[in-house]
Amino acid sequence: MTRAAYFECFAGASGDMILGALVDAGWPVEELRSSLEAMGLSGWTLDVAIVKKGALRATQVRLGVDEPQPERDVRDILPMIDSSALPAAVKQRAIGLFTELAEVEGIQHDQPAESVHFHEVGAVDSILDIVGACAGLHALGVEQLYVSPLNVGGGIVNTRDGILPVPGPAALELLRRKGAPIYASEYGPEFLTPTGALVLATLADGFGPFPRMRVERIGYGAGQKDFTIPNVLRVSVGELDSGWRPRRAVGIATAAPVSASAGHVHQHENPSGEHSHGHGHGQEHEHQGETEHQGNHASGQEHEHAERGHSHLAGDEVVQLETNIDDMNPEWYGHLTERLLAGGALDVTLTPVLMKKGRPGTMVTVLAHPHRVETALQTLFAETTTLGVRFANLSRLMLPRESRSVETRYGSVRVKLAYLDGAVRSAAPEYDDCRTVAAQAGVSLQQVYEAARVAALG
């Protein structure tokens, strides 16, 4: 079974509303604070309170700044995340978000992505909003994320870049890239902030009505302002029905520069952040199927399922991207793989091949959900020497699976269990957990790995 979250954005969304919803759904405030502290940033405060918005009770999270902060760009933020003590899956999601934002802001400002200053989103509160959202989803064991149509609001706002329409250029481009459905219930306030658009649109595995799922947790996150509608974001967390799949895949229609027909690949030349657009949710720090690799990090909690051992196979639609390369520095492949996975790829494989004129080469194969294809393509063209990529739309079936934490004599380790015909088919301990526990306990990785398997199967 797949653990998923569904966000209802009837009043838009902001970074602090996402944090509030996740805390309200059961993420302990102490874990939120420790995740933020793991970034090693200073000059911020955290306040959490229960408030009423209309008839709804909700959790309000306020991240404040109590000392001046420098402007930061992606070259400052990515190493900061990568060197933090956060779990690997959280780092991957957060790095993917800031990478996406840098690309969008670079287009908006006609600058290289790595040199774009994020202004307010580079401030400590917004960095913590984004990293905190990734940490909260991870802590609640969310493997896939689905989002309702997003209420964006309307009007104009005064920003550091001048007067801009709502939604702002960067937020609207993020929504366009991901095929996110949007609307405006009234004209005037900004309901969907750039941070909210970045997190929900980029991490979403699909958009539309409530997925078929068994809801286990519900959370309401409150914005800072009051509107004619309750300024609240609702999240529901639970298990997707094994036979359910999203009604509509998004993103593939805009994923070229590659086209294919009758088995032929048409190669194209390699084509060569977010600012505040208002305070629709108060001081909103204005301005990642989850992956098979990330799935191994998906749950920090044990989840009991009523239908554990269910023999039905889950299915979804994916896109396979391939390109053959014979003229690239082999040292670059590690960086390429990290970028692809951080951008939401499900899997990346490198296969040695013999190419024309007897030259050895490497076939890069990427598996991604349709709405992640554009990001994968941009990464392939930017980070390799390829001039073209071929792709195929595929259907896949998967065994029911779950992630749970088990206790060993060395420490706690997460394990992914897969089921076939009512019995456990495999138990795969989380590598990063095993490595960390082994280092702390002073034992070998193999000892921790075997202890975790025994605990999971026992």
UniProtKB/TrEMBL annotation:
Alphabetical list of PANTHER family matching this protein: NICKEL INSERTION PROTEIN-RELATED, PYRIDINIUM-3,5-BISTHIOCARBOXYLIC ACID MONONUCLEOTIDE NICKEL INSERTION PROTEIN
Pfam families: Ni_insertion (PF01969)
Compositionally biased residues, Basic and acidic residues: 266-310
Source domain of life: Bacteria
Bilayer-crossing regions: none
Region Disordered, annotated ranges: 257-310
Kinase among keywords: no
Keyword Zinc annotated: no
GO MF, one annotated term: lyase activity
InterPro entries xref list: Ni_insertion (IPR002822)
Source taxonomy: Bacteria, Bacillati, Chloroflexota, environmental samples
Protein's name in the database: Putative nickel insertion protein
